[in-house]
Amino acid sequence: MSLDSGTKWRNPLFVWGGKRDVEELPTIPFRSHQEVWEGTRQSKTKLNPVGRLRYYHKWPGHGRTMWNRLRYWPTRRRVLRLRGEYNPKTLRAEKTIVDKRPIWWVLGLLALAIAPLFTPGDLQNTLLTAGATFGIYSAISLCWMLIMGTAGVFSLATYAVVGTAAFVTALLAVKFALPWWLLPPIGALVGLVFGGIIALPATRLDGFYYALLTLGLNELCRVYFITSKEFGSANGGLYGATTYVPEDWSQLGQLLLAYYACFGLMLLALLLYRFVNGRRLGRILRMAPEKREAFAEATGVNFRQARVWVFLISSAALGFIGGFYTSNFGGVAFSIFNFDTVLLGLAMLVIGGVGRAEGAVVGTLIVVFFDQVLNTWGPARFMIIGLIMLLVVLYLRNGLFGIKAQFRAWRDKKKSERRSTRAEKGGEMLPEEATETDDKSIIYQRRYDKMTRNHLKTLVSPEVIEEHRQSLNGQHSEALERLLIYFRTRPQVEKYAIMAVERFEGYRIVALSGHRGVAPRVVEDRIYSTPDEACHGVFMRRVQDLLES
Amino acid sequence: MDIWFIVSNTIVLACIYGTLAIGISITWSSLGLLNLSYGFIFAFAGYGAWLFAQNVSAWGPAVLAAGILAGALGGVIICAIGFIPIHDKPNFTIRGLIATLAINLIGTQFLLWWFGPRSKNLPDIFGNWSLSLPGAVFTADKVGNVVTSIVILAVVLRWMQSSRRGLEIRAMMMNPHAASIVGIGVRRTSFYVMGITGGLAGLAAVLLSQTYYISPFGGLMPMIKGVSIALCGGLGSVRGAVIAAIVLGLNEALTGMSIGGRYVLITQFVVIIAILLVRPRGIAGLLDKAREA
C-alpha cells in the first residue's frame, strides 16, 4: 500500500466513485513491525561469554574394547569409568572418562612416594619428619572421616581413642618389653574396647549432643593421663617403647624408613576407607543422611546398627594407629589430648570437605604443612590454620573439594536468574511455566502474539480512530487495516458482538461466551442507535483492551 | 563439719557453673548456635579485667564491671564473625559449631601471642575478710562469688522476663521463625543475646580468677564444664541448667572430699552419661521434635 508523505492516506478506490468514499485521510507514518521484533528479541541483560561448561577428554574409538573392563580385584569396581558415545557432529566413536578422580589419586600418591628424592638437603630433616607426621595424621583423619562423614556421628573423641591406645600400648611395651610389631594389634584391641564404651551413648544421642559429650571425654582422658603416675606425669609423656626404626641405621635411612612406613599406614587407611565407605556399610548409611533417618528406617534400613559397626571398625583402626604411633615415636606425649590437637584435626577434615577421602588427605597436608614445616612462626601458624578453617566454614558449602559443585550450583542459579530477566510478562510464558509445557509451539505462539500486540499498540492514534469512525468498511489505511485484521482473528471466547435490542432503533455490545448453548454476556448499558455506531463502539472497546493488555 | 564444707563448696561451684551454663543455654536456645568459643570469651574477659586492673583501677567492683563489659564485647565480636554470616545458610548447627571452634583457635592463639604464656592474676575483688560461723569458715571470695553471681543472674533473668528485649529473646527461644515474621530481627536480637551471654562469661571469668589464674587457654576447662552442664540440664532450659549445676557441683564437692580431685571429671562424666542415657535431651530438655531448627 502506498503512503503519501507519511501522514496522508489516499484511497485507491476513490477514482471508481464509491458512495461514501473519501479521497484522502490523515493517518500515521509507517512503522515497521521489525523494530518491535528486534527490540523484543534483543537481550537486555549483559551476557557473559561462557566456554564449554563441562570439559572432557575425548579418545577416539571404542567398540569391543569398551567391554574389556579392568576391575579392582575383590570389588566389581572398574579402574576407570569410561563412557562410549558417538560424536554427533563427526559421527566418530569416542571414549570419555567420566570420573577422573582415580587418575588424580594415582598421580598424587606417586608424587608422595617419590617426594623424598626431591627434598632439598638442608630441609630434609624437617620435611621427612613432617611427611611421616602427615602419614599418621592423614590415617587418623581418614578414620575420623569414616565416623563423621560415613557414619554421621559427630564425634570429637577421636584423638582420645588414639591417645588412649598409644598410652596403653606404650605402658605395656615398657613394662613387658613387647616387640614393636605387637603394638598396633594391641592398640586395635584397646581402640575397639574404648570405641565400644563410647559408642554406648552414641546410640541414644543426636549427633550434635554427642559432639559436646565427646569434647568433654577428650578432656577427661587428658586430665586422667596427665595426673596418673604410671603414665609418666612427671616427664610430659611416656617414652621408652620399642620402635621399628633400627638404631644402627644412618639418620637419613631412619627418616626414610619412618616416612615410608607412615605412607604405608596412610595407604592402609585409604583401603579401609574405600572398603567401608564404598561398599555395603557406606551405602546403607548414605541411604540415611541427616533428617531422612525416619524414611530410611521405614524402608527397612537398619542405619543404627550400621553406624555402630562403622564406629567400632574405625575405633579399632584408630587404636591400631595409636599402637603404630607408639612404635614409630617410641612413646607418646600428653599433647595428643590437647584441645588444640582436636581443633587441628577438625580443621583437617573441614578444610578438605567432610565425607571425602581426598578432603581428609589434602586437608591434613595443608594443616601439617603449616603446623610442622612453618614451625618457626609460633602462634601465627595456628591463627592461619584457624583463619582458613573459619573462611572455609563461612563461605564454602563442603570444603575445598566442594568448590566445584558449589560453583556449578552458583552458575546455574545465575543462569536461571538471567533467563528469567530476559522473559517479560504480558501473556508470555515464564521460564518455569515453559519448561512444564509439552507443546512448545504454544510458547512461541504466545511470544509472537505478544510481539504483535506490542507493534499494534504503536499504531493506535486519534487519526486511525477517526478514520475508523468515518469509514467502517472498504479500504483502510495500513495501520487501521492491521488493527482490524488482528481484531478479527481473535478467538470466539469473549469476542465482542453487536446485538439488536430493537431493529433499526437500538443496538448494544455483548461478549460471546464462545460455548454452544451459553448466552452472550452484556458488556455495557449503553444503547447505540445505529449499527455503525455500535460497530465503532466495539472497535473502541477492542482498542481499549489491546492497550491494556 | 564435713557436711557444711560440702554444702558450701557445692553452692560456690553451682553458682559459677550455673553462670556459665545459663549463658551457653540461652545462646543455644535463642540463636541455635552452640557457642564453643566460650573459652575464648572467658579468657578475653579475664585479660580485659586484668588490663583494667593494671592500667585504670584495681577497685573490685570496677574490675568486675570491666570483666563483664569485656566479655560482652567478646560475645558481640563472635556474633559478628561467627553468627551473622552463616545463620541463614544450610547445615547451620554444625557450621556454627565449627566456626566458633575456629574462632576459639584463632582467639586463644592471639591471646597467647599478645600476652605471652605466663598467667596473670587479678587483685582481690571482695577484699580479704572471712566469716566464721559455727561449723564452717566462709572466706571473702566464696561469699562474694555466691552473692555476686546470684545477684547478677537474678538481674539478668528478671530483665529477660520483664523487658522488651527480654521478651524478644524469649520469643526467639520459642520459635525463631515466627519471631522473625512478627518483626523480631534475628540479627539485632542475636547481638543482644551474645552480649548478655558474653557478659555472663566475663562475670564467671572474673569470679573464677579469684581461685585460678588467667591464661590464654584457661577458658577451656570452664567452657567444657559449662557445656556439659548445659547439656546435662537440657540445652535451652534455664531451670535445667540450675538443677544440673547443683547436681554436678554436689558431685564435684563429694568426689573431691571422698576419693580425690583427680577423679572429679570421671565421676562427672559418669553422672552426665547416666543422666543422658535416661533422658537424651537432658534433665529439663524439650523432647524430640518439640523444637525444630
Automatic annotation (TrEMBL), chain A:
<keyword id="KW-0472">Membrane</keyword>
<dbReference type="InterPro" id="IPR043428">
    <property type="entry name" value="LivM-like"/>
</dbReference>
<feature type="transmembrane region" description="Helical">
    <location>
        <begin position="127"/>
        <end position="147"/>
    </location>
</feature>
<feature type="transmembrane region" description="Helical">
    <location>
        <begin position="308"/>
        <end position="326"/>
    </location>
</feature>
<feature type="transmembrane region" description="Helical">
    <location>
        <begin position="359"/>
        <end position="377"/>
    </location>
</feature>
<feature type="transmembrane region" description="Helical">
    <location>
        <begin position="257"/>
        <end position="276"/>
    </location>
</feature>
<feature type="domain" description="N,N-dimethylformamidase alpha subunit">
    <location>
        <begin position="444"/>
        <end position="547"/>
    </location>
</feature>
<keyword id="KW-1003">Cell membrane</keyword>
<feature type="transmembrane region" description="Helical">
    <location>
        <begin position="332"/>
        <end position="352"/>
    </location>
</feature>
<feature type="transmembrane region" description="Helical">
    <location>
        <begin position="207"/>
        <end position="225"/>
    </location>
</feature>
<keyword id="KW-1133">Transmembrane helix</keyword>
<feature type="transmembrane region" description="Helical">
    <location>
        <begin position="180"/>
        <end position="200"/>
    </location>
</feature>
<dbReference type="Pfam" id="PF26354">
    <property type="entry name" value="DMF_alpha"/>
</dbReference>
<dbReference type="InterPro" id="IPR001851">
    <property type="entry name" value="ABC_transp_permease"/>
</dbReference>
<keyword id="KW-0812">Transmembrane</keyword>
<feature type="transmembrane region" description="Helical">
    <location>
        <begin position="383"/>
        <end position="403"/>
    </location>
</feature>
<dbReference type="GO" id="GO:0015658">
    <property type="term" value="F:branched-chain amino acid transmembrane transporter activity"/>
</dbReference>
<protein>
    <submittedName>
        <fullName>Branched-chain amino acid ABC transporter permease</fullName>
    </submittedName>
</protein>
<feature type="transmembrane region" description="Helical">
    <location>
        <begin position="102"/>
        <end position="121"/>
    </location>
</feature>
<dbReference type="Pfam" id="PF02653">
    <property type="entry name" value="BPD_transp_2"/>
</dbReference>
<dbReference type="GO" id="GO:0005886">
    <property type="term" value="C:plasma membrane"/>
</dbReference>
<dbReference type="InterPro" id="IPR058713">
    <property type="entry name" value="DMF_alpha_dom"/>
</dbReference>
UniProtKB/TrEMBL annotation, chain B:
<keyword id="KW-0812">Transmembrane</keyword>
<feature type="transmembrane region" description="Helical">
    <location>
        <begin position="96"/>
        <end position="116"/>
    </location>
</feature>
<dbReference type="InterPro" id="IPR001851">
    <property type="entry name" value="ABC_transp_permease"/>
</dbReference>
<comment type="similarity">
    <text>Belongs to the binding-protein-dependent transport system permease family. LivHM subfamily.</text>
</comment>
<feature type="transmembrane region" description="Helical">
    <location>
        <begin position="33"/>
        <end position="53"/>
    </location>
</feature>
<dbReference type="GO" id="GO:0022857">
    <property type="term" value="F:transmembrane transporter activity"/>
</dbReference>
<feature type="transmembrane region" description="Helical">
    <location>
        <begin position="260"/>
        <end position="278"/>
    </location>
</feature>
<dbReference type="InterPro" id="IPR052157">
    <property type="entry name" value="BCAA_transport_permease"/>
</dbReference>
<keyword id="KW-1003">Cell membrane</keyword>
<feature type="transmembrane region" description="Helical">
    <location>
        <begin position="59"/>
        <end position="84"/>
    </location>
</feature>
<dbReference type="GO" id="GO:0006865">
    <property type="term" value="P:amino acid transport"/>
</dbReference>
<keyword id="KW-1133">Transmembrane helix</keyword>
<feature type="transmembrane region" description="Helical">
    <location>
        <begin position="226"/>
        <end position="248"/>
    </location>
</feature>
<keyword id="KW-0472">Membrane</keyword>
<keyword id="KW-0813">Transport</keyword>
<keyword id="KW-0029">Amino-acid transport</keyword>
<dbReference type="GO" id="GO:0005886">
    <property type="term" value="C:plasma membrane"/>
</dbReference>
<protein>
    <submittedName>
        <fullName>Branched-chain amino acid ABC transporter permease</fullName>
    </submittedName>
</protein>
<feature type="transmembrane region" description="Helical">
    <location>
        <begin position="136"/>
        <end position="157"/>
    </location>
</feature>
<feature type="transmembrane region" description="Helical">
    <location>
        <begin position="6"/>
        <end position="26"/>
    </location>
</feature>
<dbReference type="Pfam" id="PF02653">
    <property type="entry name" value="BPD_transp_2"/>
</dbReference>
<feature type="transmembrane region" description="Helical">
    <location>
        <begin position="192"/>
        <end position="214"/>
    </location>
</feature>
